[in-house]
Amino acid sequence: MAPSSKLKTPAQINNMDYEEFIDVFGNVIEHCSLCAAAVWRYRPFKDVKYLHEEICKFVDQLPPAGGEGILRSHPDLAGRAASEGLLTKESNQEQRAAGLSDLTQEERKQLAQMNDMYRSKFGFPFVICARKNKKDVILEGLRTRLNNSQEAELQKGLTEVKKICYLRLLDLVEHDGIESRL
Amino acid sequence: MAPSSKLKTPAQINNMDYEEFIDVFGNVIEHCSLCAAAVWRYRPFKDVKYLHEEICKFVDQLPPAGGEGILRSHPDLAGRAASEGLLTKESNQEQRAAGLSDLTQEERKQLAQMNDMYRSKFGFPFVICARKNKKDVILEGLRTRLNNSQEAELQKGLTEVKKICYLRLLDLVEHDGIESRL
């Protein structure tokens, strides 16, 4: 989504000071700048894939409460934050790309009901990589995933978080057609 | 620091929805709202001490990169963020309380030099509970702690983070003279 002229090269990233690094990468995991702060120790980053892998490793090392905390830091799809204009710019773009800003009244109602059921069953919101899915697939995925166990949904949600992170990184860092690995 | 009329009771905290909880407690660990997001699962909180303990347990369960990330999320004392007015309101109050907004030119220079030495030796900034110390003690503490090992300073820094967190919680939650446990 970012214009390619703005993409950072690995050399530019490795020359950033800490504050700049956090300004640029602090929200690749939604509202969890601690993840970028943690991987700062793994510089130099040879490419975007390596940076992504270090972030994923950190997420995987968190205790379960931390994984849940990451999921809780995500907004509901087409939820209150969206309708009140309180989404981060990344979430806003992603939800629009999936067609979630363009739901029928019936779809919006269904989504809200299932979001509530999901959150009350699992203790965190439903998270899916919106840019890799369209609204019909998202609604169907939510319906299906409501049947899973808490443990399975914690893992599934974090897998989606890592995909979201990867796409956000590709919007920020120079790369060579590696999006297809998702 | 917060007027006592604004202090939340445990019952009020346990009745908060998630967004309100994060609005209120998201910065008790500086710039690391993930910590509050993680402990949401441990409601109900019977008192401020219990809430603090759950946050400390979460911090202790983080891998070393996460502990370092927490320290990196703290500003330098009397550093660039302070001089540019970019501190969080909590940090600003704490640094003022320690007399760090009122350094002589010589003290400011010494502190900046030692902050730089500390950060380049350890890979994270010097963190101390400013409200529990005055500027002379802070300068002396920094000088001494520069001699420690990286592992010792990671633990020492996180111990200070937990004290800062406790005092921030006491500014937010009703309590009965338990500040002395620090």
UniProtKB/TrEMBL annotation, chains A, B:
Q: What is its EC number?
A: 4.1.1.97
List, for all copies, the residue spans of the domain called Oxo-4-hydroxy-4-carboxy-5-ureidoimidazoline decarboxylase. 14-169
Catalyses which reaction(s): 5-hydroxy-2-oxo-4-ureido-2,5-dihydro-1H-imidazole-5-carboxylate + H(+) = (S)-allantoin + CO2
BP-aspect Gene Ontology terms:
allantoin metabolic process; purine nucleobase metabolic process; urate catabolic process
Pathways involved: Purine metabolism; urate degradation; (S)-allantoin from urate: step 3/3
Q: Which SUPFAM superfamilies match?
A: UraD-Like
Keywords carried by this UniProt record: Decarboxylase, Lyase, Peroxisome, Purine metabolism
Q: Which GO terms describe its molecular function?
A: 2-oxo-4-hydroxy-4-carboxy-5-ureidoimidazoline decarboxylase activity
Q: By its UniProt entry, which Gene3D superfamilies does this protein fall under?
A: Oxo-4-hydroxy-4-carboxy-5-ureidoimidazoline decarboxylase
Q: Which GO terms describe its cellular component?
A: peroxisome
* Statement: the UniProt record of this protein carries the keyword tRNA processing: no
Q: Where in the cell is it found?
A: Peroxisome
Is Lyase one of the keywords UniProt gives this record? yes
Q: Which PANTHER family match?
A: 2-OXO-4-HYDROXY-4-CARBOXY-5-UREIDOIMIDAZOLINE DECARBOXYLASE-RELATED (PTHR43466:SF1)
Would you identify the family this protein belongs to, as annotated?
Answer: Belongs to the OHCU decarboxylase family.
Chain's role: Catalyzes the stereoselective decarboxylation of 2-oxo-4-hydroxy-4-carboxy-5-ureidoimidazoline (OHCU) to (S)-allantoin.
Return the protein name: 2-oxo-4-hydroxy-4-carboxy-5-ureidoimidazoline decarboxylase
Q: Which organism is it from?
A: Petrolisthes manimaculis
